[in-house]
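Good morning,

Both structures are done.
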Amino acid sequence: MKKQAIEKTSWEKVSGWYAKLVGDKGHYFHRQIILPNLARIMLLKEGETVAEIGCGEGVLGRTVVAKNGYLGIDIAKDLILEAKKKDDLNNHKYLVADATVDLNIAEKFDWVVMMLSLQNINKPFRAITNAKKLLAENGKLAIVLNHPCFRIPKHSDWEDDRDRGKIWRKVDKYLNPMEIPIESNPFKGTVKKTTYSYHYPISGYSQMLTDNGLLIERIEEWVSNKKSQGGMAAAEDKARREIPMFMTIVCRSAN
């Protein structure tokens, strides 16, 4: 693997906060929703390998057992350093690299995963191009997203009618691509830090995959399993069961 010259990423600035947020086993939705569903979808056999683009500090990598090889790729150096500290398996490797340029990786993988990372990459088409290059023959790509219809930062929210006992999701923008700045203050007493989320409609992701020579095998939509308390609990739980938080696309090479 040839070393790249890496530019600063917005996630480098919040890497310490993010590592604390997800902890050793991931945040709640990692543990309860995303990781169990990915394990069910991939059903890794002994010796099969996984590459992850936008691995962060290695939550997925730490669920891949020693009998399976794993490569985690992220542009944020501090997140990769954190991942290496937490994963000492010899056949698990981590690489600081920009997934939107040629990765110069000769190895091929049975699964390539982009877990909540594609939505944070400002050139998603190029990242998908590189993901396809990593696929072994009959390999598959799994992309997990915050649901692009219902979880659009700053452009979607919950709304309720307490008199009627109903809760619904409201969306004010969807079809056009957007770069959305996310301001946060993860460390008390520090100035705000900004990361970026990149929104595309489902049709946009479908087009990117098709243009990269990938066939969509299935799309899954995952809801939250949290339970509410209080007077609106029944309505909140019903809305939670009906409005998915995450969308996952599984695809394979068309050629």
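Second structure follows.
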Amino acid sequence: MSTSPHSGSGYPSRQNGVVLFISLIVLVAMSLAGIALWRSIGTGVLVAGNIAMQRGAVTSSDAGIEAARAWLLLQTPTVLNNTQPTGYVSSWDNTFDAATFNWNGQGVLVGTDAAGFEIRYVVHRMCSLANSGFNAPNQQCLTLNVAGGSSGRGSGTYGQTNLAGTTFVYYRITARALGPRNTVSYTQTILY
């Protein structure tokens, strides 16, 4: 009886390495999927952080609106008829653009809040002519005329009664909050 050198249980059978090749392809595919997942999670965290910063900036700019409102309530008509060096323009200024406005030179600094946002504001009286009264000749102002007294949120301070026959001039307040990660928020409101 003769035995063949490749037959029997004593010798390993010859392998072609197909399993190793397929394993390497699967390993590369899994590595690429893991990298893509890691990057998408990182991007999601960055987007969530940016949204949180933007919401914080909007909230901070509300402090500028309130500071401007408080300033307006303390001013006399003589002051409000004339443009001030910083923070107040006695006309609506057709060329005003919040993005290009000189906030450091002409805006009023309210302060920096706990979140690190620097808050500034500027007030525009909604009249066509600067440095003149709202009832001056050729003056055009956005106004509200009150025919009778009533209590409401439209008065200068909440809950007080407006005087009958009073004319209120509208004011546009623009506030800017500048903070971490170069986050900028501009908020505008109209008051009378």
